[in-house]
Every structure is written in structure tokens, then in C-alpha cells.
Specification:
Layout lengths: L5 E6 L4 H12 L4 E5 L12 E5 L8 H4 L2 E6 L7 H5 L4 H16 L3 E5 L12 H10 L1 H15 L4 E5 L3 E3 L8 E4 L8 E3 H13 L8 E4 L9 H17 L1
Parallel strand pairs: 1-2, 1-4, 2-3, 4-5, 5-6, 7-9
Antiparallel strand pairs: 8-10
Organism: Parvularcula lutaonensis
Protein name: NAD(P)-dependent oxidoreductase
InterPro entries: NAD(P)-bd_dom, NAD(P)-bd_dom_sf, Polyketide_Oxido-like
Length: 241
């Protein structure tokens, strides 16, 4: 077994949650291998963060998994009209590739990101249930497939199930449900989700569990207007990319 020289390997490190994981891991003085599809311009290795690139849908990931004691997957599919219709199988196929790599590297601790919406959530506003869930149906189906793979993998796993994501600074007052959102808590800050992921692998929390962090935000941030703005921004970004 290769002796790991990193505490954590983070797949999907370029995403919003992945970037929060890197910043918070540095604050915790953890050594991280940040795995990107394409290493961002300006990324530099230092004594805490090392960068690598890989395509989780086609590459052999065992050598990368061997470099860390625990694995965090921040893989995710950004909303766009094409992704909503035919999303890439990042959750299902990408996570299976990570699990295969972990087995061959003899690594056991895994934390992945799903969504609270893979199960029926009684607390969701009617407008959200009627608009978002159908729009993300294919992506949610891929998350469900990923969850089944993780549950059956035989590793020490954690599946984080956030609510509607919001990129705002980390808080200390979010609630963590058991696979479902707390009453009155719809949104999850990416930074709070990152903290949950790090607590899972670094502090041994929620092994075999589904922590669902979320909190109540402003009326606007939980409104249809916010949804329209954020989906519109993601769609424009997807066209630019």
C-alpha cells in the first residue's frame, strides 16, 4: 500500500464547494491533493495544497487515490438547458471510478455530495417542488444512481445531502438533518457544506450517514425571483463555457 502524503484527495476541486473545501482544509492545516478536470490558471502547489488533473469519466484514478488517506468528491453538474436534458454521468459513473480507484489503492474513507431532493421533502415550497424538481429530474436521477453505488461499495462512506445551494460566507448556525432538511431550512451555503465534508473525513463524523446541512436565508434568497436569477446566470455561464 502506498504511503499517502496528503490527508485528503478532493475530486472536483475547481467547483464552488471544492474551492471552499480547499480554503477550509488549509485553515485546518490539512494537506490536500486538489484534483481538477483542468487545473485553473494561476493554481500553484505549496506545502498544503498540491494540484493535479484527471477526467473522472475516463482516467484510472487509483494512483491519485493512493496519495491521500481520505477522499472527498465535490463532483457536480452545473445547471444548463443541455445538462438538464442529458447530464454527463459525473455523479454515477464518476463516483464509481473514484470508488474503483479507492479499492485498488486500499483507501476506505469517502464523502460525496448528493442533494436533499433525491427524496421527497415535505417542507419544500410548492413553487420549488413544481419548478426545480422537474427541471433537475435527470440530474437527480443520476444522484440517486450514485447513492446506490456508494451505499453498496463496502467503504466507510458519507453522503452529504445539501439543500438549494447558495455561495455565501460560512456560518455557524446551520442545521444538519438526517438525510432531510430541517423545518424552515431550504438553502445550504457552499461554505457550510464544505465544512460538513471536512468534518466527515477529518473528524470521523457521519460514517454511513446522510448529513443534510441547511439554514433559513432571506426572503429574497428563498424566492422564485432568486431561482430565476441564479438559473439564468448558470445558463449564461454554460453558454460562455
Amino acid at each position: 500500500m502506498t504511503d499517502p502524503n496528503h490527508d485528503i484527495v478532493v475530486f472536483g476541486a475547481s467547483g464552488v464547494t471544492g474551492q471552499h473545501v480547499l480554503r477550509q482544509a488549509r485553515h485546518r492545516d490539512l494537506r490536500v491533493l486538489a484534483v481538477h478536470h483542468t487545473i485553473p490558471e494561476g493554481a500553484r502547489d505549496d506545502d498544503r495544497i498540491t494540484h493535479a488533473s484527471a477526467d473522472v469519466l475516463s482516467d484510472d484514478l487509483a494512483d491519485l487515490c493512493a496519495l491521500g488517506r481520505s477522499i472527498i468528491s465535490c463532483l457536480g453538474v452545473a445547471f444548463s438547458p443541455s445538462a438538464a436534458i442529458d447530464p454527463p454521468p459525473l455523479y454515477s459513473k464518476g463516483t464509481k471510478a473514484i470508488i474503483d480507484g479507492m479499492r485498488r489503492a486500499a483507501r476506505n474513507r469517502l464523502a460525496v455530495i448528493s442533494a436533499a431532493f433525491v427524496d421527497h421533502q415535505e417542507i419544500l415550497p410548492d413553487w420549488f417542488r413544481a419548478s426545480v424538481i422537474p427541471a433537475l429530474g435527470a440530474i437527480i436521477d443520476d444522484m440517486r444512481a450514485m447513492e446506490r453505488t456508494v451505499e453498496e461499495c463496502g467503504l466507510a462512506w458519507t453522503i452529504a445531502r445539501p439543500g438549494w445551494l447558495l455561495d455565501r460566507p460560512k456560518t455557524d448556525d446551520y442545521e444538519v438533518g438526517d438525510g432531510v432538511l430541517h423545518e424552515g431550512c431550504l438553502r445550504t451555503r457552499n461554505a457550510d457544506l464544505a465544512e460538513v465534508m471536512l468534518m466527515a473525513v477529518a473528524d470521523g463524523r457521519w460514517v454511513g450517514g446522510r448529513p443534510s446541512p441547511a439554514r433559513h436565508e432571506s426572503d429574497f434568497d428563498e424566492s422564485p425571483a432568486a431561482l430565476a436569477r441564479e438559473f439564468g446566470t448558470m445558463a449564461v455561464d454554460a453558454l460562455k463555457g
